[in-house]
Every structure is written in C-alpha cells, then in structure tokens.
Amino acid sequence: MPSFSENLRQLAPVDGLQRFCLVGEDGQTLAVIENAPGTQGSFRVYHHVAKKWGGIGIEAAQEALTLFAEHTDDARLHPGKHPNIDRLFDIVERNLHFEMRCE
C-alpha cells in the first residue's frame, strides 16, 4: 500500500489556490481548509476527490481515506488528532455530502 507522501506525488498540483470551504446542503460552511504549511496535504487530497466526485460525499471520503494512508490508521487510533480525516469518517458514517468552493 502506498504511503501518504507517495499518494500526494500522484495528485495534480494546486498552485494558485489559497483555501476552500466545505459547504453543506443548507448553505452553511462546515470547514475551511487552507493551502498552507500543515494543511497542504489535506488540501490536495480534498481538492482531488472533490473534483473527481463532484463534492465530498461517501465515495469521495472513502477515496480520501485511502489516500491519507497511514494517517487514516493513526486517526482511527487517536480521534481528534487528525480533524480533516475525522471529518471524512463522519461523512461516511452519516452519509453526508458537501460542496467544495475554492478561493
């Protein structure tokens, strides 16, 4: 199984994008993820799956969890340590869907 860093190398660059919002069906912003040190990997994974799946729903979340690789396992063992991965677990468990709006 490829590592997170190996998976990131396969994703398209996201240069020029600063942040995106995850917006629920009610129009409320759930989260903002920055393309900044400490969140760049999450930004790229979320961006990739949202573009592929037309938002972040179950299928996108499951693919993202695979791309996060060893961090997904760590998030299962330590809830709260990886909030962007915890959010994906919640999306799968609760059958949620979010639109991604880039800035």
Task: Please characterize this protein's 3D structure.
The protein has 103 residues and is an alpha+beta fold. It has one domain (4-102). It has helices at 4-9, 40-53, 58-67, 70-77, 83-94, and strands at 19-23, 29-34, 99-102. The chain has a 3-stranded antiparallel beta sheet with strand order 2-1-3, covered by helices on one side. α2 runs antiparallel to α3 (58-67) and α3 (58-67) runs antiparallel to α5 (83-94). The model has no long low-confidence stretch (mean pLDDT 95).
Listing every helix as H and every strand as E from the N terminus to the C terminus, the arrangement reads HEEHHHHE
Query: Low-confidence segments, ≥5 residues, pLDDT <50?
Result: none
Number of helices: 5
Oligomer: single chain
The coarse overall form would be globular
CA(first)-CA(last) distance = 33 Å
Arithmetic mean of pLDDT: 95
- Tell me the total number of β-strands: 3
The major β-sheet equals:
3 strands, antiparallel
What's the topology here?
Layout: H1 4-9, E1 19-23, E2 29-34, H2 40-53, H3 58-67, H4 70-77, H5 83-94, E3 99-102
Antiparallel strand pairs: 1-2, 1-3
Helix pairs in contact: 2-3, 3-5
Short note summarizing the structure:
The chain has helices at residues 4-9, 40-53, 58-67, 70-77, 83-94, and strands at 19-23, 29-34, 99-102. The chain is an alpha+beta fold and 103 residues long.
